[in-house]
Amino acid sequence: MIKELPDAEERKSTKCGNLKDHANLLFKQVYETKNLRGRSNDAVSTACLYMACRQEGVPRTFKATEYHMNAYILAYLFDFSRDLEVCAVSRVSKKEIGKVFKKILKILETNVQSVTVEDFMSRFCGNLNLNIAVQRVANVVARRALNLNLVAGRSPVSVAAAAIYMAACALGYQKEKREIGEVAGCAEATITCAYRAMHARASELFPEDVRLSIRPLPL
């Protein structure tokens, strides 16, 4: 008899459990090396969770990890240590998480797969209530901007956010850069810089089937 497929809540719980176990293992490995003495447990635990998300194929931005750590994971994340109190929300800065994350990579002599624009596009568009058509166009815009070297040196998050803004404007959806920035976890000014770098060659970025019907883009 075929086992009944788990429902959405069960799948969500399983994913949280996998992330919890993975982050727990990373923290334990780092803790035992004693190479991060002086760093707050909150910073190390947040960096471990960020790394676990990357390695489990559900990447999150530093900002998302900083402010939206899942309560289920946090409640049980490091239960092997009686002395460690895990807060429901990390108060560690994005900069500090990044520093600790890089140190952990060196300590464990490991790496993580590079994050791409596509890793964030679906989640960002979903959280912004933008449909699959906008997501498809935004993916093409971002990919072509990268191929044309228009956004060299910019993070995948800022490129994704700028591409979403450009696609939404072109297809007639009212989305402010501020709103997109809140979802993406990056500053409005950062989105503006990436958007302006792409704007001059916008006609080359859109898919052929929408290129002739797009609305004028704001500067």
UniProtKB/TrEMBL annotation:
<dbReference type="InterPro" id="IPR013150">
    <property type="entry name" value="TFIIB_cyclin"/>
</dbReference>
<protein>
    <recommendedName>
        <fullName>Transcription initiation factor IIB</fullName>
    </recommendedName>
</protein>
<dbReference type="InterPro" id="IPR000812">
    <property type="entry name" value="TFIIB"/>
</dbReference>
<dbReference type="GO" id="GO:0016251">
    <property type="term" value="F:RNA polymerase II general transcription initiation factor activity"/>
</dbReference>
<dbReference type="GO" id="GO:0006367">
    <property type="term" value="P:transcription initiation at RNA polymerase II promoter"/>
</dbReference>
<dbReference type="GO" id="GO:0017025">
    <property type="term" value="F:TBP-class protein binding"/>
</dbReference>
<dbReference type="GO" id="GO:0005634">
    <property type="term" value="C:nucleus"/>
</dbReference>
<dbReference type="InterPro" id="IPR023486">
    <property type="entry name" value="TFIIB_CS"/>
</dbReference>
<comment type="similarity">
    <text>Belongs to the TFIIB family.</text>
</comment>
<dbReference type="GO" id="GO:0097550">
    <property type="term" value="C:transcription preinitiation complex"/>
</dbReference>
<feature type="domain" description="Cyclin-like">
    <location>
        <begin position="3"/>
        <end position="106"/>
    </location>
</feature>
<dbReference type="InterPro" id="IPR036915">
    <property type="entry name" value="Cyclin-like_sf"/>
</dbReference>
<dbReference type="Pfam" id="PF00382">
    <property type="entry name" value="TFIIB"/>
</dbReference>
<keyword id="KW-0804">Transcription</keyword>
<dbReference type="GO" id="GO:0070897">
    <property type="term" value="P:transcription preinitiation complex assembly"/>
</dbReference>
<feature type="domain" description="Cyclin-like">
    <location>
        <begin position="119"/>
        <end position="200"/>
    </location>
</feature>
<keyword id="KW-0677">Repeat</keyword>
<dbReference type="InterPro" id="IPR013763">
    <property type="entry name" value="Cyclin-like_dom"/>
</dbReference>
<keyword id="KW-0805">Transcription regulation</keyword>
